[in-house]
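Complex record, two chains
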Amino acid sequence: MFEKVLTQHIQIPESRDIDYYMKHGGYQAFRKVLKEMDPDQVIEVVKESNLRGRGGAGFPTGVKWGFVPKNDDKPHYLLVNADESEPGTFKDRLLMDGNPHLVIEGAMIASYAIRANLSYIYIRGEFVKEARILEAAIQQAYDKGLLGKNILGSGYDLDMYVHRGAGAYICGEETGLIESLEGKRGWPRIKPPFPAIEGFLQSPTIVNNVETLACVPFIVERGARWFKSIGPESSPGPKLYCLSGHINKPGVYELPMGTNLKELIYEYGGGILDGKALKAVIPGGSSVPVLRPDEIDVAMDFDSLAKIGTMLGSAGTIVMHEDTCMVDALLNLIHFYRHESCGQCTPCREGTNWAERILKKIEHGQASEKDVDLLEEVANHINFRTICPLGDAAAMPIQSFLKKFRDEFNAHVAQHKCPLNSRL
Amino acid sequence: MKVEFSEAAKKEFDEIVKRYPQKRAALLTVLHLAQREFGWLSRDVMEYVGQLLDIPVGEVYDTASFYTMFYKKPVGKYHIQVCHTLSCALRGARNIYEHLEQKLGIKDGEVTPDGKFSLIKVECLGSCGTAPVVQINDDYYEGLTIEKLDDILNHLDKNSE
């Protein structure tokens, strides 16, 4: 039987309170780390657990921590990426809202592991309520002596603050986030150097997603073997899946990594809205390649989805039924990427702009077959030609929608209108 | 009009600056504070923030103009932000938006003549599971219907009198 750990107490209002959290075993992992483990041992157990980043890239968390220099004299920083903005994704918000101390404890352990004495939770500016909840929780942790100087007599110092963004999707990209935290535009940096070597204020910095860090206290407490026993061994652990769109029961579901997508939609999500037929599923947040109904019998984990040419991403699953116009849906997404392109790289800035214009033409029945080809060419010229993955994030939906739903694009051209009269 | 923080905001500013190893890193947080104090970020406000943090006004503007939540012109007392990205769009965000346009008599980016309401379409608010969603000032209103929306507007309208 799978035991929910990340969201177990989330329905209970007191779960935000430190006393409730501690009564249910909270901050035991942090105490254990301070008393019994040195930082490298913490990194080792996280490496062994095969925990992979829940923000989208799926990079092994322990390996990332291991890149931080061990004997340098620069300050180190741990940044919590709470800039949740990938369309279709709303899991971190739930954790911050209902289980803030778990996120904070994960950040404390990560800070200790990378020898950081200062940590910021970078939260998207719109999440005002969640920022307040986190601030209150951090204050409680200070009051209990779990933050500040010489924590629980261990000699370890750690300060933690909430830092609010101000409305920019690109700040979810880790170097964009760092630039933004430095008080600048969120323009991603060229890598290398990677943030683990040169990040915030040119010092070693680790940026981890909220859900990733929420897994850490359990790994410390229950061990790497326990974590690996949930889901596929190369991509294990409890996972928060977000269901939205044309689904009967939208929401966040905590399930073992590797849960079948079909099961997720029909059993947990209660099937398609209004009893309609399924047309398409975007499994991992708006930037990952779309799936057709005949492709959804697949395990939702990093490797299984990669095998069929898409990605787990942030596990933001967007469901679309038969009445959805795929041209209009793509136009909606490309509008998003055009708006959120930071403007730094020409292929992304100009490419998303052109792609949106061409898509408008197609959707409004003013395009020729050549325009559909041109759209594909534009996408191919964005891909892999930009500093950060936002360009790819825009190109992948275009390429996959065209590959899998080309007939709908052609129908718009042939009929000189949207066959479904879509108005998304 | 001379731009200056209230005493409470000055105290808050001092606290904010202490959280960062460098003053510049406090910029976004101070801009949030300034916007709360003055309603929006005029050139004078940006100059004031620049002076406080030793940053040239051009650089303050460079940063502020990058972020959609920093307003470069006045907004309404109630700033209504309608999410129109895919998950909300699939669940009727357009109806919500068009109803607001009609009811308030303003379009995307405009403010009602009495300054009470402003309306804007925004990108994904990260609440896709409770679509359609609207953010008014700091608060999210989720799982909206036209009826719920009307109730909220009436309530706000009354409150502002």
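Note: Chain B touches chain A at residues 19, 21-22, 24-29, 31-32, 53, 55, 62-63, 66-70, 84-87, 89-91, 94, 122-131, 135, 138-140 (CB under 8 Å).
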